Amino acid sequence: VIFFLIYTYFGPFFPWEFAHRGATFKDMIDHHYFAQEGLWNLPLGVFSTYIFLFVLFGAFLDRMGAADYYVRLSMAAAGRLRGGPAKAAVFASAMTGSITGSANANVATTGPFTIPMMKKAGFKPETAAGIETAASTGGQIMPPIMGASAFLIVEFTGISYWEVVKVSILPAVLYFLSVYTIVHLEARKGGLEGLSKDQLERTWNVFKEGWYYLLPPILIIVVLMRGQSVPFAGVIGIVSVIALGGLKGLVDFHARSKTCKVKFQDFIRLLWLGSINVVRAMEQGAIRSLSVCAAVGAVGIVMGALFQTGLGLKFSSLMVALAGDSLLLAIILVGIASFVLGMGLPTSAAYIVLSVMAVPALLDIGQPWGLSLLAAHLIVFWFSLDSCFTPPVCVPAYTAGGIAQANPSKAAWAAFRTAKGMYIIPLMFGFTGLLLVDQPLNLLQTFAFAVVGFLASSAVIVGHMYVRINAVERIVISLAALGLFWPYISFQIAGAVVFISVFFSQRARYARALAPNVDPTN
Predict the structure, then answer these.
(1) What is the rounded average pLDDT of the residues 42-47?
(2) Residue 520: its pLDDT value, please?
């Protein structure tokens, strides 16, 4: 903010295309405080109307105990698998992140349970922290309740929230698949196994114990599908959590009354405790919203400076000049810009600044490719998420590193390595049919080859499938992965054939390695 205020005032002293006529203090105050293009900009209105309600909803659901239940359910379901605690962390972070919409809150909620379990299972501390960070970052793109930026997309594009949610489901599944695959291959590479049955709860028992925690998010989806407004859905979600909490309290009270004598004072005490929980949930929601409100307010001033100085239009024209007619180069430039902005801005703030500067350029360059307004905003949104895991500034990764007692920088690099899907999927938005929900055949083709592509790219990153991947195999699989993501069916089929060939070759080598240890009489 300080930089942009200085830039606004000392405009004539800046070099090259960045120079402008400057503004007086009076003009700056008028523009930022008294007009609607500065502090009181669209982002602050979106925060007041949408974001706060869903932050509050997440606080109510968390207060009710949903986050702990999601972790228990994930551990019961995935704990027996190879590298089970890490896979449980992926599932738990996906579910928890879908109600918190914050990577840092997700890490702080699920990390204290999942990270020690991963370390106990044999994962290195920095690897455990990286997996938790990558999974928690994905919570911001997991419907139904995505991060704060999703509501900003609704306002910037004029598209309904349900449409944004609908097209975001498969990309979110692909991202978590990429994280899950890396976890699996890391576990196989390290010879890790899952937890034993006696260390885990039964999945069905855990599900029966708290299935009602899954109802509020489902109710929000139903309300949105019926065409109701986003604020209405948020209010319905909050009311449903309060009602479920009250019903749960009454059921527990009734069950207790069958085993021991209860008095009227006990019922009054139950109502009092329920009221206290509501107040504390509101307090927790207000506290959680402060950081988002501060970021949105500050970025309003940045946006005001972009409008007042004309820098937004200059950046867009400069980007068009640098990229020429290449949409690929334009998307890469957006990725680089998001990396720089992510060092100092949280996801929502980075998205707002980038969307103002880069979306017009993306639409101009992407017109021959049929790039839609929503696709351009989703490209910027997904790239903006890298502020959660790209060194040197990435608060969620440092939070996870602290929980894991790992070197923060190593934890950040491990997260960067695990979250590579955040850089591939925005490219798919630009060149493939991943967002074309009205073209199911095209969508199915893109999704199927992308699944195999992420399996291949994960193998390249980890350097292991059934056995260690040698240098030649790594090059071959890299080319196969590139073909699988390339937006032409011939390249995708060729990439799939090559990867499947290497896969069965690895499987055969693994079987030969086990052969001397197999009893021929069995």
Answers:
(1) 80
(2) 45
